[in-house]
């Protein structure tokens, strides 16, 4: 059992999904950062969030319909089918998209560093996140 779940502000500020979906999306995003991505079953997620498997299925389907996640299905060496869920660029932007947004903000004199990927201060991160949210109309 997890002790805590971090919900990033970029997910917390999405108005089009409920709080449970934000939690699920945050969990998927944290696992997307792993090489294999999120391969948690509906049962594992239902146990984590204390809801039914049917609720998890509905929430994941809705997140996919909204374009927040992508789901791929694979088969392992034992011919067992499994899925991998990853967040889309709406949630986890590629370095190219992030660079594009940072360059735009630099041109508008909102960011001053020349490094387009390594902004560590919170104000810069908030500006970048806000701009990415605007780009995807979230």
Keywords:
138 residues; mainly alpha; Arc Repressor Mutant, subunit A; two-stranded antiparallel ribbon; 6 helices; 48% helix; 10% strand; globular
Structure, explained:
The chain is mainly alpha-helical. It has helices spanning 9-12, 19-32, 42-49, 53-65, 95-107, 122-135, and strands spanning 69-75, 81-87. It has a two-stranded antiparallel ribbon with strand order 1-2. The protein starts with 8 loop residues before the first helix and ends with a helix.
Q: How do the strands and helices of this protein lay out in sequence?
A:
Elements: H1 9-12, H2 19-32, H3 42-49, H4 53-65, E1 69-75, E2 81-87, H5 95-107, H6 122-135
Helix pairs in contact: 2-4, 3-4, 5-6
């Amino acid at each position: 059992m997890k002790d805590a779940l971090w919900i990033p502000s970029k997910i917390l500020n999405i108005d089009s999904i409920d709080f449970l979906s934000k939690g699920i999306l945050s969990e998927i995003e944290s696992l997307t950062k792993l090489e294999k991505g999120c391969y948690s079953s509906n049962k594992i997620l239902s146990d984590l969030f204390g809801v039914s498997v049917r609720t998890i299925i509905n929430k994941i389907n809705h997140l996919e319909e909204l374009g927040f996640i992508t789901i791929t299905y694979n088969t392992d060496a034992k011919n067992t089918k499994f899925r991998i869920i990853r967040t889309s660029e709406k949630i986890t932007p590629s370095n190219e998209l992030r660079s594009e947004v940072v360059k735009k903000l630099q041109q508008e004199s909102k960011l001053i560093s020349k490094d387009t990927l390594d902004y560590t201060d919170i104000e810069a991160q908030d500006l970048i996140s806000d701009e990415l949210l605007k780009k995807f109309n979230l």
